[in-house]
Design a protein that fits this description.
Elements (H helix, E strand, L loop, with lengths): L21 H17 L3 H31 L4 H30 L3 H8 L2 H13 L5 H19 L3 E3 L2 E3 L1 H7 L5 H39 L5 H8 L7 H30 L24 H15 L1 H12 L3 E2 L11 E5 L4 E5 L6 H19 L13 H14 L5 H4 L3 H31 L5 H15 L9 H4 L8 H5 L4 H20 L1 H14 L5 H7 L12 H11 L2
Parallel strand pairs: 3-5
Antiparallel strand pairs: 1-2, 4-5
Helix pairs in contact: 1-2, 1-3, 2-3, 3-5, 5-9, 6-8, 7-8, 8-9, 10-16, 10-23, 11-12, 13-14, 13-21, 14-20, 14-21, 16-17, 16-20, 20-21, 20-23
The structure holds zinc ion.
Amino acid sequence: MPQSSPTTETPFHEMSTAAPDLDALRDAFEDVARDVTGSDDPARRAEAVRRWDALRGSVSTWAAMAHLHFNQDTTDERWRREREEVDAFMPRYTDLELRVKRALLESPHRDDFRERFGAGHAFDLWECDRAAFAPDIQDDLVAEQKLVASYIEAVGGARIPFEDGTAGLSTLVGAQGGPDRARREAAARALWGWFDTERPKLDGLFDELVTLRARMARTLGHDSFVDVGYARKRRVDYDRRDVEGFRKEVLERVVPLCEELVARQAEALGVDKVMSWDEKVHRPQGAPAPRGDAGWMTARAAEMFDALHPGLSDFFRLMVRNGLLDLETRDGKAFGGFCTWFPDYGVPFVFANFNGTPGDARVFTHEIGHAFQRYSSRDNALLDYVGCTSESAEIHSMSLEFLCWPEMERFFGDDADDFRRQHLAEQLTFLPYGVAVDHFQHLVYENPDASPADRHALWKELEATYAPWRDYGDLTHPAQGGYWQYQRHVYAYPFYYIDYTLAATCALQFWSRARTDRKGAWDSYVELCARGGSLPFRKLVESAGLRSPFEAGCLAQVVEDARGVLGV
Ligand SMILES: [Zn+2]
């Protein structure tokens, strides 16, 4: 069948990709490396960079498609094999890609690339990639992925006795958002009972991960894995001292507000004290739920974007028209939700599992924020500038959640106000938790020889600092400092967590601005999306007229506005 050339209007079912040939890529990348350093012809050098970017785009389209197919049906052997092929391919491919980055970094024509591609920022990103990888650590990287997979399998595969049958972790977490307090407590008891039993295994896996990561850091010539973590996250314009200052800001400004919010929550729920299993519930009747299924919600979302912004409306209709959303829960479909991106076609794809909770509306407001950003910046000069580092990427998603506030009636009817208040309160209480996770990881990797018991004691201390209201009652595992073992990022994505809190600080500023200047907030949001990853984090934040999270007092206005809205 003749394949029409890819466009943003290609329907999903007509998209196809072929597995790349590593040897052919090696030859093609060697040609690129030769041209970017050796050629005297600027046009030829520029063409080489474009050729390289197109090849990278195709590899990334193939990997994204394989990942998506597998998630859409984890029972299909064909997709499982394809995913394994991607996993085996990637470390070798990273090595090839880095050879071109190195050639560009060392090229005598750096100034020329800087001008033509605005590559100054890309050079900084590639320096990070160089600091995070060397062929000597390839085996350790594979071993790291295996340990992470063991953790994900152990936690994802847990079948825990609950009520009349067994439940997975997501069901037990979901049950803690329900209106029945005794059921919430029973769910928490079942969940943490499982962690208590599995503690030796989970401690062992983490201990191996910390040791392995410390070894990789040494091989790469760094003092500790903290440096590797920052390089992996491609942090080019802030360091750990800035992050430390931000954590302090949250501790001083947000923690006291959260304590008041939790006290208010106890009153609303009519309980003496908010226990850990009450924290997700803000009103006696439970969280507001959207009033229809996936089809109904997609139609409401289209109306919402029509009302909010013409660009977003056209974009969302393109996604619906071309089948770029997979929202319904099905047997065999993987858990969770994400937005992925196909560079060859210039379009994103949103994957989710609707379950009748407020989280379903969030798929439209959060994941579509990621999707819209990728689409808006698809023509940026380098592939590195289409995607963003994650602290920047989460600004697009978290801010859209707030910018969509005026339209929430479409999903929640007269519960919309309760939805908005809960969203705001949860976003604020998330900040101390997020910085606690980050603080924990710094201390863990600065002291790789600490014992598992030391790590639990450390978490307990940090939780008392950042969440002084938290009370686990007699639930042994979390009461003794084990909550972090539930947080997948601690095992799988080191140093990722602060990114959510940095982005949330920016998203809350968009929320605050939209209250008085809706048009101005929308204009700078849309412009920020189009900039994609073409600038480092602080510059992107500045370009949108937001205060940097690393500036003292950055949360002052937000906290004041939130107090007004939430009445504390
Ligand atoms: Zn996100």
